[in-house]
Task: structure prediction
Amino acid sequence: MLKEIVLSSISDIVSMMCLFSFTMKNPVYTIFAFIFLILSMSVSWYSLDVPVFSFMLIIIYVGAIAILFLFMVMLLNIKIYERSNVTVF
Result:
């Protein structure tokens, strides 16, 4: 019973983080949502008694790919313009 409750709550978090990773305007927040998405997916795999795949997901995706994306966005220094009356060309 507890496993079903944990999996349903984690699936809600995964769905929410997937939506956030596509709808956020700031690319740094998007990458943080992607990292939290991968971490919550690894928790769901761990609760399904597949700890090896869970740790591989954390090491490969969060440890390598997501941190690489984060460094790329920070090095590119992307300017985020808020919605206002000023037009940006």
Remarks:
- The radius of gyration is 16 Å.
- The longest helix spans residues 51-76.
